[in-house]
Amino acid sequence: MTHIVLGYPSFEINRKVIEQMVAAGVDCIEMQIPFSEPMADGPVIMKANLDSLAGGTTVAQCLEFGEEMARTHSIPFLYMTYYNIIFKYGEEQFIAHCEDSGITGLIVPDLPPEQSMSFFQLAVRHHVSPILIYSPTSTDERMKELDSVGSGFIYCVARRGVTGKKSELDDTFASYLQRCRQATDKPLAVGFGIRSRHDIIALKNKADMAVIGSETIRLVDSEGPEAVGPFIADLMQS
């Protein structure tokens, strides 16, 4: 799974990057609706959020673009955003729009089930998978609680902290993933600091999906959108 921030550096470049990602063979794409205080994100994605907003990106534009992508490409598309965006838009209206647009899932890092169980129930009724998040600090009991609420797959963050920083996929990490596997029958996606073919190889037989986020944004910033396709294609050879 790959990750983009909508409107950064522009929707036109988003479109070009997504075309390359799909052509390279990614299984699904996580589209982030920008928010002014992206608490789970590190410097690269935070800057992309703020620059997108400074450029005038609106929620309505993001939803229109997301619908275009879901109807243009045959792979699943998800939205990732923060709850303030959904709350202001209206839970039911937002989720219904996702269903009508062909968006298959939602990742909302700052919304625990206890805060709005109705949101998760509403998403499932509208055939939009609410993706729950495990972290290394999650207890076994908490993992099972989250598994009972979420659907689609489980997003396992590779370490404590925010996105972007390199993660060490060591024995401690392997033990954590074993706990994740024991807590759910859903596929496991691993993100936060996954950057290279070496990281992908390290996840084989331990997780079902690798999530690449900050690294593709760095590539667009440093080498342009045309660098994303070859980068993803190289990872797919792992």
Please, could you describe this protein's structure?
There is one protein chain. The chain is an alpha/beta fold and about 240 residues long. Helices cover about 50% and strands about 15% of the residues. The chain has helices spanning about 10-25, 45-55, 60-70, 85-90, 90-100, 115-125, 140-150, 170-185, 195-205, 215-225, 230-235, and strands spanning about 1-5, 30, 75-80, 105, 130-135, 155, 190, 210. The chain has an 8-stranded parallel β-sheet. Strand 6, helix 8 and strand 7 (about 190) form a beta-alpha-beta unit. Helix 1 (about 10-25) packs parallel to helix 11 and helix 3 packs parallel to helix 5. The longest helix has 14 residues, at about 10-25.
